[in-house]
Amino acid sequence: MAGLMIPSISELQITDVERVAALMREDFRPEEQPADYAALHAAGERTVLVARAGKALAAYVTLLRRSEYPRFAAAGCPEINDLFVGKAHRRRGIGRALVRAAESLAEQRGYERVGIGVWEHGDGAALRLYEDLGYRWDGQPSRSTPAGSIRYLVKELAPAARLEEGEDEQAA
User: Fold this and answer.
1) Domains and CATH numbers, the chain
2) Backbone dihedral region of 54: left (phi > 0), alpha (psi from -120 to 50 degrees) or beta?
3) Do 68 and 116 form a contact (C-beta atoms < 8 A)?
4) How far apart are CA 120 and CA 148, in angstroms?
5) Cys-Cys crosslink for 153: which of 40, 135, 141, 172, Cβ 3.0 to 4.6 Å?
């Protein structure tokens, strides 16, 4: 690993949209998507977190309040979606930090679990990261999309913290 760094993580600001677009172009993604992200972020449907390495916007991830994956949507499980770390900033722990920040945000919003999808073709590093962070396969077959197959993983969030809260309520 090239040297871990502690990125500065914050929610998307309107001034970040062009920088996010540049990262998307690096990954051959449609240019109109950052504006969509900004609108959905403003509406509260998608929270976009960005990571800075020094002054550079190095990565982003989104937390979908309502997943497009039917199983997560039916369970009211938010989905961490579209993690991307710029090529110049990879293998420094930035992706891990962003996923943890998204998990923390989901937990703050009262969710007990969070889901994540990973492309089955060529995304072995992402799958290893998610499994290392405690995500486990949701037990369902992969979901086919026009772009490829997606495997969905889920993680329980801070069960010890919920147990302690329950104990506090019982003691009161």
Assistant:
1) 8-171 (3.40.630.30)
2) left
3) no
4) 8
5) 135
